[in-house]
Write a structure and sequence with these properties.
Order of helices and strands: EHEHEHHEHEHHH
Shape: globular
CATH topology: Rossmann fold
Largest sheet: 5 strands, parallel
Distance between the termini: 59 Å
Structural class: alpha/beta
Helix content: 40-55%
Strand content: 5-15%
Number of domains: 1
């Protein structure tokens, strides 16, 4: 009997490489790069090029979703000032995972997973809760995980250095980028200083 099919939502190459190595043992994987949250466009393209490089070097099936930044922005706009690990992030997870489940349904793939929980800045409980909800809605199993456990994050950092991948210094959305600079007009307008 062959391996069961799984669509792995990937945020970037550094987070994908370790998760891919874990899951490929048990599943027939397709990686889905869908991240309309990433800004600016040059950053999106840089991360996309890294995942293309990863897929080509490792013979990974790669599917790329549309860069729908306007739709993403309108979806999270009311949460824009809330910061990391807030409702803004949960809505972002939901937005990207919904599209992943839609792609899995079109392709008749049995499971969906995401690399998002490998980051120490991401709430794996929220990611798994949203994934389970969407799994019920789409009638596709969600692979629950906290990939940062068992040194998963450290392993992903090591592997990305070994492969020479670009490692970004912010989550990806313009809000997280502006929040990194505590002296920025964005942070001053929030009154967080």
């Amino acid at each position: 009997m062959g391996k069961r099919s799984l669509l792995l939502h990937a945020c970037c190459a550094p987070c994908t490489i370790h998760v891919y190595q874990l899951l490929r043992k048990k599943y027939s994987l397709t990686v889905f790069y869908y991240n309309p949250n990433i800004a600016p466009l040059s950053e999106y393209r840089r991360r996309h090029n890294e995942i293309i490089s990863l897929s080509q070097k490792n013979d990974i099936k790669l599917l790329t979703g549309d860069y729908e930044i306007r739709n993403w922005t309108s979806r999270v706009k009311k949460y824009r000032f809330l910061g990391e690990k807030s409702e803004r992030c949960r809505e972002c997870f939901r937005f990207r995972l919904e599209e992943t489940f839609k792609a899995a349904a079109r392709m008749k793939i049995e499971f969906v997973a995401t690399t998002l929980s490998i980051s120490p800045h991401k709430d794996s409980n929220a990611i798994n809760r949203i994934g389970k909800e969407l799994g019920k809605k789409f009638e596709i199993s969600f692979y629950e995980a906290d990939f940062k456990k068992n040194d998963g994050y450290k392993k992903s950092v090591h592997l990305s250095r070994e492969h020479g991948f670009y490692r970004q210094n912010y989550c990806g959305c313009i809000y997280s980028k502006m929040e990194r600079d505590k002296d920025s007009p964005w942070m001053k307008s929030r009154g967080d200083n």
